[in-house]
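### Sample
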Amino acid sequence: MGVTADGDANPGDVRPDSDVAAENMSGEAVTGDAGPTETGTEPSGEDWEAHAEQVDGGAVSDDDDDADGPAEDDESSRVTAWIAERASAAGGRFRQTAQELRQTLAGEASARAAVAALRAGPPVVEDPDAPRDLTAAAFFDVDNTLVQGASIVHFARGLAARKYFSYSDVLDFAWTQAKFRITGKENADDVAEGREKALSFIAGRPTSELAELGEEIYDEYIADKIWPGTRALAQRHLDAGQQVWLVTATPVELAQTIADRLGLTGALGTVAESKDGVFTGRLVGDILHGPGKAHAVRALAIREGLNLKRCTAYSDSHNDVPMLSLVGTAVAINPDADLRDVAKVRGWEMYDFRTARKAAKYGVGGALVVGAAGGGAAAAVRLIRGR
């Protein structure tokens, strides 16, 4: 789907009312930023867990999601100004850096786009006898968690095959991804260059073109790279009547295609601004990664009435610790070294589907309880044993 600068999927329609709804349900004031600390730095680890307590004590909702505010051309400035106004009203206690503001905006934009896509989709015919667990959900990272490798690199390969750009560009994408995964740190120049290259590619193109390309490239390059073990875990959440969402830095159009093909609820991804069905060449906020993913999950929980304590998140990367710390159950899949260390310390479940030997090592027997006991239709999900 295209996310417009002035349409229903517009992230600029973010107002304090959603926070009021969350405050009424949780008994705590909820900031609009999903967790910046007093010093203006993003929380991590225990900080995210403490901040999550503000919203996950009960289902939260956004009652005014359909009420549109005045349209403005620069939606990023509008939402950023609102966040800054709230920070000022709080005496600067929740000041954010410019990067944190972009991450907040990216999360809000992603959640709004995800809900808009869900509402715009075909009606779902539900089995009256099937379980329904309305306040629990599962959130899956995509790259190396659900899909082998980086989905954006697979997408770039498909575009190169269609002469949209060269294979040297694909190598640049792959090299940047490799450096990021090895070091766990982003190079500002790499990020800026990759962002500009991607935005220059889509600028002026219709949103429908990217969606169509995503469908074709999924079949050619991604369909056979889905980890069966991760797919099985997602299906168990669906069978328990829960929503299942992808959360990824990949463009939301491609992420939505992956979700649709796997029968999942939807996707939270990077949102590129569009106007009148054409990409403007700008992002709404920033690339959805790290703390931005936590912002997106929290914003979606508000809109969908989810209880974060009853939700589960899956990832392979320590960069997703903010998202993993936000929910009641965190699971590491194909974990990098740093995430493995965090998971061991915190007692998180771990799966490794990369080799049979590792799967046997980390595919611990027992049961993974989805959701909190006594919180509704909790379901026991048997851990996958490596064979």
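The longest helix spans residues 98-120. This sample (HAD-IB family hydrolase) is used throughout the tutorial notebook.
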